[in-house]
Amino acid sequence: MEMTVKELAKIVGISVRTLHHYDDINLLNPSNISESGYRLYSEDNLDRLQQILFFKELDFPLKKIKEILDDSSFDKQEALNMHKKLLMNKRKRIDQMIQTIDQTTRHMKGEINMTKEEKFIGFDFNKNEYEAEAREKWGGKTVDHANKRIYNLSETEKKSKEEEMNEIFRAFAEYRETSPESEAAQSIVQRWYDYLNANIDYEYTLEVFDGIGEMYVADERFAKNIDKFGKGTSQFASEAIKAYVSKHS
């Protein structure tokens, strides 16, 4: 039985806007269009959306997810097995951390004594083996935002960098009623691209930058934060970035 975009959004728990965006970038196209022009989604669409969201949990950009799912060699069962390993590993760490909280509470009440090491059971700052395997198989370069350079700054320097970033998004907000392809808009995008490559310890290629722009509208958390500068800022910034990438590719 086919589903409308609203029905699919309700089942999955994501926004209609996100599904529209996935259709626009050919990541998830509806199986049919009704005579009235409404998008209609099939069970196969539902399965593909599940895979999209699993890969998003691994921080893959939407463009990369599309490449993976469109590859004729993609194995759904293999991917599901990998996702299961990752989730089980995550559950194990969460269970350990809950136990550490319980033990810490008893320690604070004087009921037990904890060693220094026991206070940190469950914390894991290393990449787990399954995540590494998944990234090696599908990811090539990861899109983890390695912020080591910023972490090493002083508090004053961090505040300065944060204000510089806010100024850029205030500029996006100021020009959000103009064309994203305008000279002013593209100048702001250039500032943002330069900022990322200068301050984040990661190589922001045009492909990665394009993926970031897509997240500004596809990920509600990004959209909500960016739209604090002004409603519609996230959409404008996303379109301006896409225009920049298209022009420089």
TrEMBL record:
This is MerR family transcriptional regulator. Keywords: Activator, DNA-binding, Transcription, Transcription regulation. It comes from Mammaliicoccus vitulinus. Gene3D superfamilies: 1.10.1660.10, Antibiotic binding domain of TipA-like multidrug resistance regulators. It comes from the Bacteria. Residues 1-71 form the HTH merR-type domain. Pfam families: MerR_1, TipAS. The keyword Transcription regulation applies.
